[in-house]
Amino acid sequence: xxxxxxxxxxxxxxxxxxxxxxxxxxxxxxxxxxxxxxxxxxxxxxxxxxxxxxxxxxxxxxxxxxxxxxxxxxxxxxxxxxxxxxxxxxxxxxxxxxxxxxxxxxxxxxxxxxxxxxxxxxxxxxxxxxxxxxxxxxxxxxxxxxxxxxxxxxxxxxxxxxxxxxxxxxxxxxxxxxxxxxxxxxxxxxxxxxxxxxxxxxxxxxxxxxxxxxxxxxxxxxxxxxxxxxxxxxxxxxxxxxxxxxxxxxxxxxxxxxxxxxxxxxxxxxxxxxxxxxxxxxxxxxxxxxxxxxxxxxxxxxxxxxxxxxxxxxxxxxxxxxxxxxxxxxxxxxxxxxxxxxxxxxxxxxxxxxxxxxxxxxxxxxxxxxxxxxxxxxxxxxxxxxxxxxxxxxxxxxxxxxxxxxxxxxxxxxxxxxxxxxxxxxxxxxxxxxxxxxx
Length: 439
Fold this sequence. Notes:
Helix 1 (9-24) packs parallel to helix 6 (142-162), helix 4 packs across helix 5 (102-111) and helix 9 packs antiparallel against helix 11 (278-301). The strands form four sheets. A six-stranded antiparallel barrel has the order 6-15-19-17-16-20. Strands 2-1-5-4-3 form a five-stranded antiparallel β-sheet, with helices on both faces. A four-stranded antiparallel β-sheet has the order 7-14-12-9, with no helix packed on it. Strand 4 and strand 5 form a beta hairpin. It has three domains: 9-171, Beta-Lactamase (2-Layer Sandwich), CATH 3.30.450.40; 197-204 and 336-437, Efflux pump adaptor protein, beta barrel domain (Elongation Factor Tu (Ef-tu), domain 3, Beta Barrel), CATH 2.40.30.170; 208-332, no CATH class. By secondary structure, it is an alpha+beta fold. The two termini are 62 Å apart. Helices cover 39% and strands 28% of the residues.
């Protein structure tokens, strides 16, 4: 059994002053909390003390770290919560077990000492923001009431000096919390416009694709990306050494066939066998002429020329120079710089219901502060893999005002129909839940 240490009034007063000094000497809230539940033991002889701030135990005598689910902690918090509802915690007082419920009284008998003194901590507005649960095995006498009341003012002042802000549990009363939750729930039904973000690129509108006219190797590019070109201007050349040799061989083969046909036609008047070969030799001449014309055509195709005015749209000439290409492979595009559209790759997971004419805002990577407006023209029904390996729907949109430069990239914000805020916020989680559990 613990009991207060006896001594003269001078000794008690000296201990009391030393206790106040230790309280004011605390450097932070953790040190102060430890002092409040431990330093007064020699003066008041308590078994244990629990410090509560905003209804939650912050420190306990002899414990370095409070376990929130410990039986004693739960008991003290429940007991103080009941006393708070009874409005009896405004003043320092002895707590009678009879003022609590039967279950809490049973916990009191097993977890705490018989005599408990409640020492409130009061802020500048005279509102209780915490307190000390002091328990010991002998009753509290009136002189100790006076000392503890004085210490309560000191403790409150020291705590407010280190923690000037009121705990949120006290700033937000239960009524305020209920009102806030109700407002948030009602806010979930506010209709908002759905929107998604997707990568986008400014591409030519109605451009003329320049494809490889033959199988071969590109020798050189004569234009640069985004260079202005005129109709008939030379764009690029293929390696023509082999094609030139084939054209020469075909030309010589035609000369041989024509000479053979001429010689045979002269002998046909006197030689019946030569006359019978005329049709065969004439057919061979036509064959060699066709081979020569085809070789010349391939040689002419080795120089690719522009079929319209515009700008040459392609990525990099150095990457294509010396590269073998096949017939029909895309090399560049000739486009009007004043005619462009917006191409968007909308990921499958971000797809929402979109109708033609939906509003789109483009923010370019090169100028993220400027907003370019566009309207949805068409959207693909089938998703295709992108360059990054992601499945996405292709969306095409027309610019409302003058389009940006072709080739620029950015992020498009696509606006859909209005929907409740709850659906806007929880659309992706709900979709994931449905995919995982099938609800």
